[in-house]
Design brief:
- The chain is an alpha/beta fold.
- It has a single domain, classed as LigB-like (Protocatechuate 4,5-dioxygenase, Chain B, 3-Layer(aba) Sandwich), CATH 3.40.830.10.
- An 8-stranded mixed beta sheet has the order 6-3-7-2-8-1-10-9. It has a two-stranded antiparallel ribbon with strand order 4-5.
- β9 and β10 form a beta hairpin.
- α3 crosses α6 and α6 packs across α10.
- The two termini are 21 Å apart.
- It binds fe (iii) ion.
């Protein structure tokens, strides 16, 4: 049977992708961010050795327009082309899918009353493409197969934080009912504190972000009880993306062990990274 071997929470700030492509990993402004990912990538590739990852992120108008905006959407493709977000296509291979796992998850989640939009074609944007090469190798090709799970955090009405946590619970049941002997990681992306428009442009709340990192580990129920308004008031409008981390956390056991944690807030966005395994898993 398949099992969940790691959970990862990560920001997906688009400027990270640009800095990565320009080779700024040693630039003093970026080093504290990129250095946080190095031990995580090493751990994922050499210890966790997942066969596939369910990658929770949001599309930013790259593939889904505001005219058709699914609350939750799951990709079932063999490959996912890279969306061009205005800088040209990034120098990365097309993302490799796992159609068999995707279709199992689609069937299992919909039978479990989470009515996802099932997408047989989907272009992926920075929500997925910023963290993916920081976590897994892509040369000569990706070392991991990806099941993209897209959440609407762009256009209200959004799913509640609690709905996201419950989707994570259902995702765990769905993964654990997959008959293949497979190791599956779950990544939740988004946020952290940032607001990129209006009078509060550049609003950052480091204390909120650090508390989020504490509670996503120890007390996700408290985070699930937060309203969108509470998150946006405290941490900026776009910080509401953080609800996607709760899908990852819901997929992990109630008690987890944290292995890595990094936080860097140089300019207009809090950038966080955290990794978990189930507390009952061998060290
Ligand atoms: Fe985003």
């Amino acid at each position: 049977m398949a099992r969940i071997v790691a959970g990862i929470g990560s920001s997906h700030v688009p400027s990270i992708g640009r800095a990565f492509d320009l080779g700024k990993q040693q630039d003093p402004a970026w080093k504290p961010l990129f250095d946080g990912y190095l031990p995580v990538k090493d751990w994922l590739e050499n210890e966790i050795r997942a066969d596939a990852v369910v990658f929770v992120y949001n599309d930013h108008g790259s593939d889904f327009g505001l005219d058709r905006c699914p609350t939750f959407a799951l990709g079932t493709a063999d490959t996912y082309p890279l969306a061009d977000e205005g800088f040209g296509q990034r120098p990365l291979p097309a993302v490799k899918g796992d159609p068999a796992l995707s279709w199992h998850l689609a069937n299992a989640l919909i039978a479990d009353e989470f009515d996802l939009t099932v997408c047989q074609e989907m272009a992926v944007d920075h929500g997925l493409l910023v963290p993916l090469p920081l976590l897994w190798s892509y040369q000569p090709d990706w070392s991991i197969k990806v099941v993209p799970l897209v959440v609407n955090v762009i256009q209200h009405p959004l799913p509640t934080a609690r709905r996201c946590l419950r989707l994570g619970h259902a995702l765990r049941r769905a993964i654990e009912s997959y008959p293949a002997d497979m190791r599956v990681a779950v990544v939740g992306t988004g946020g952290m504190s940032h607001q990129l428009h209006g009078e509060r442009f550049g609003h950052l709340n480091e204390a909120f972000d650090q508390r989020w990192l504490d509670l996503i580990e120890s007390d996700p129920e408290t985070l699930a009880a937060m309203t969108h308004q509470e998150i946006m008031d405290a941490a900026g409008a776009e910080a509401v993306e953080l609800i996607m981390w709760l899908i990852m956390r819901g997929a992990m056991a109630p008690k987890v062990r944290r292995l890595h944690r990094n936080y860097y807030a140089p300019m207009t966005s809090g950038m966080g990274l955290i990794t978990f395994v189930d507390a009952a898993d061998p060290a």
